Fold this protein.
Amino acid sequence: MPAPDFARRYSRQIRLPQIGEDGQRKLLGASALIVGMGGLGSPAAMYLAAAGVGRLVLADFDRVEESNLQRQIIHAQADIGELKAASAAETLRALNPAVEAVALDYSLDDEDLREHAAGADVLLDCTDNFPTRFSMNRVSLETRTPLVSAAAIRWEGQVTAFDPRAPDSPCYQCLYPDENIESATCEMEGVVAPLVGVLGAMQAMEAVNILLGHSELPGAVWLFDAHSMEWQRMKLPKNPNCPACGK
């Protein structure tokens, strides 16, 4: 399949004064590590690929199940039983052949996660469990790689970003200091399909802002109630006693 024509493919972004050709080339030279190819990772990865982020590393050890298809739009009926990382990479290559999609179809331990985070310009936490979120926060701090995190359940969700390069940026454990916290899952509680699309798209948008150097979100937590269609914005301060980033 021929590579997309640069000027035609990205013309609507190049028109924007905040991006232009230089910004578009910056996106093409950038790399993102996306952990979780489910409801959040699906729209996030697809929009980053469509926007022209040049290298997307997709991590997920799970396989596609029929119940996933209600919201995990990067997978299709024919992908049931396939590894999610491989299924997602195939979709992204078809969407934009100019993007390098790398599938990691195994569970990343801390060393693997740290290695891949060090090679990325931005991390996207699209997972559904606190242990992985805390691990991603640790490697974000260790490698000084910005982290964009989201969560969704039932009709509610949140999205935020943390930038360890900024001295006043909080981290994920400033928001959730207790590592023993337990999370509800979509399997247990349910989730409305478009909610994860909204939040995953927000993650992609903030990742693009970070890659372009435009981000103003770190430290802000956006809370979304999909039932009432209301957003709330909360400012999260850096916790000096945070067990992860505090002094």
Observations:
- The chain has a mean pLDDT of 92.
- Strands lie at 31-35, 55-59, 100-104, 122-125, 147-153, 156-162, 220-225, 230-235.
- The radius of gyration is 17 Å.
- The CA atoms of residues 73 and 116 lie 25 Å apart.
